[in-house]
Amino acid sequence: QVQLVESGGGLVQAGGSLRLSCAASGMPFSFYDMAWYRQAPGKQREPVAFITRGSTTNYAEAVKGRFTISRDNTKKMVYLQMNNLKPEDTAVYYCNVGGSSSPPSRYWGQGTQVTVSS
Predict the structure, then answer these.
(1) Is the sign of the CA dihedral 65, 78, 55, 58 positive or negative?
(2) Pairwise CA distance, residues 48 & 36, whole Å
(3) Buried b (16+ CB within 10 A) or exposed e, 16-41
(4) Average pLDDT, the chain
(5) Are residues 22 and 107 in contact, defined by beta-carbon separation less than 8 angstroms?
């Protein structure tokens, strides 16, 4: 049974940084692409960043140059380093199993809240 557990969210001022973590279990982690999505209040969930099993990355335009996705296959972890945060980054952040060339999989964690104050 695939389980994803996100952590690391919080309240931060604009311009600050946070590092989100996602712990995966119940799957051969190193074989899968992984992703981060976010959902702001009143908006649809949207993709933020992807990392292939070979650690190739790509990002949504809104976060390019500010966010960095990474993974540690030995720990079955995926991370999202978020720098220069903006109020519009406020959302619940979720990790997901899968890559950018397909819709998100049905495997979601509980999410972690990121709130950026101006």
Answers:
(1) negative
(2) 5
(3) eebebbbbbeeeebeebbbbbbbeee
(4) 96
(5) no
Average pLDDT over residues 32-40: 97
| d(C-alpha 74, C-alpha 88), whole Å | 33
Is residue 102 classed exposed, middle or buried when 0-12, 13-18 and 19+ CB atoms within 10 A define those classes? exposed
Among 29, 48, 34, 33, smallest CA distance to 93 is for 48
Residue 100 has pLDDT above 90, yes or no: no
Calculate mean pLDDT across residues 84-104.
94
CA 76 from centre of chain: 14
Cβ neighbours around 68 below 10 Å, total = 16
Reference 69, options 86, 52, 51; nearest CA is 51
